[in-house]
Design goal:
370 residues, mainly alpha, two-stranded antiparallel ribbon, disordered C terminus
């Protein structure tokens, strides 16, 4: 029998386990997963800059769209916005960092002086009901040594913060660098994501919308409200003559970022200290200001800035923000809620596909569940 007359081998079943097609698919999957893992490892050091650049880009897109026709250049419009953001964000951040160092030292010195002079004991003894607490504290704690240890820790932390400020400055510059390309090339970036997305066009568009809503709600509803609360709290500290008003204002703003926590963690102990020091009126003013103005601004500003954009329960918002901060660091404030929003969308897509696959079409065109 000639070679031309020999029967051809049967076609290989591509669905058979161990077939050449299956092996190729597995190799391709392994290479893809390995490549994605390596890409993640390379991008991980830049996650904070990427997250904040993404957030700023989403917030500035309306301004970019307005500016592009006037300047007739996407690159020039993006460069102008990056320059403005640098002047508005970078310079104040450097100044605030210097002020925080000074305020921390001033506050630590004031507390140390109060303890060393025994002023805290005299303040407690002015209240007969609280006078026994002074003796109990002295018996249980070596207060001067404890305060000195805390002061040394604060001083060391501030020195470490000063050293790390150089790295933070580099991170801010990198954020502005990435922001320029996110603004200038946003259309190409979105088109690339759409082409690579395994989701349908409608689900991909919804994902973009959910990410945009989450970032806007997080930045406007969390950061801006926290900044206002911290500013109002620090202003009252300054007006009442409390030490380190700028430092404690920033601390109140940082605490207000986290759901459930808030600025009251700072101003309630401060009011107690004022009361123990005999400043009853100042303590009452601080309590009223903190509970009505600082606490109430959240209920006024948050609905105005967020509306219905953050479609997330309070508990999930708490987990996404706090968990994001633990996993990703400072960028977790953005990446945490965004990760929750995307994961929720993916679960909804899987649930919809499961429900669709669980129905059968009848001959008359109607559908029924299996």
């Amino acid at each position: 029998m000639s070679a031309s007359e020999r029967p051809l081998p049967p076609p290989e079943d591509s669905n058979e386990w161990g077939s050449r097609s299956q092996v190729r698919s597995l190799v391709l999957m392994a290479l893809t997963i390995g490549g994605l893992y390596l890409c993640y490892r390379m991008a991980a050091p830049f996650l904070p800059a990427l997250a904040w650049a993404l957030a700023l880009a989403l917030l500035l897109v309306p301004v970019q769209r307005w500016l592009e026709p006037k300047l007739r250049s996407p690159g020039l419009a993006a460069g102008t916005l990056v320059l403005l953001v640098g002047l508005v964000v970078l310079l104040p951040a450097m100044l605030v960092g210097d002020w925080m160092l000074g305020e921390a030292k001033t506050g630590a010195d004031a507390v140390t002086a109060m303890v060393d002079s025994g002023q805290w004991r005299r303040n407690l003894e002015a209240y007969p009901l609280l006078a026994p607490a002074a003796g109990w504290v002295e018996r249980q704690f070596d207060l001067p040594d404890t305060v000195n240890a805390i002061t040394s820790w604060v001083t060391g932390s501030m020195a470490s913060l000063a050293r790390e400020s150089v790295l933070q400055l580099i991170g801010m510059v990198l954020t502005l660098y990435l922001l320029f390309y996110f603004l200038r090339d946003r259309r190409n970036i979105l088109a690339s994501i759409e082409s690579l997305s395994p989701l349908t066009a409608a689900d991909t568009a919804r994902m973009f919308g959910d990410v945009d809503d989450t970032v806007h709600a997080t930045v406007y509803g969390t950061l801006i409200v926290a900044m206002v609360q911290g500013a109002l709290g620090g202003l009252m500290f300054w007006w009442l003559g409390l030490p380190a008003p700028l430092l404690w204002g920033i601390v109140m703003g940082l605490l207000a970022v986290v759901p459930v926590l808030g600025a009251f963690i700072v101003w309630i102990p401060a009011a107690i200290l004022l009361l123990l020091g005999g400043s009853d009126v100042k303590a009452l003013v601080l309590v009223l200001w903190g509970s009505i103005v600082v606490g109430g601004i959240d209920n006024v500003l948050y609905p105005m800035l967020v509306g219905r954009r953050l479609k997330m329960h309070t508990l999930l918002a708490f987990v996404s923000i706090v968990g994001g901060l633990i996993v990703f660091g400072s960028s977790g404030l953005i990446l945490g809620p965004v990760t929750f929003a995307i994961t929720r969308l993916l679960l909804e897509v899987w649930n919809r596909r499961k429900m669709t696959s669980g129905t059968m079409t009848e001959p008359d065109g109607s559908s029924r569940a299996d």
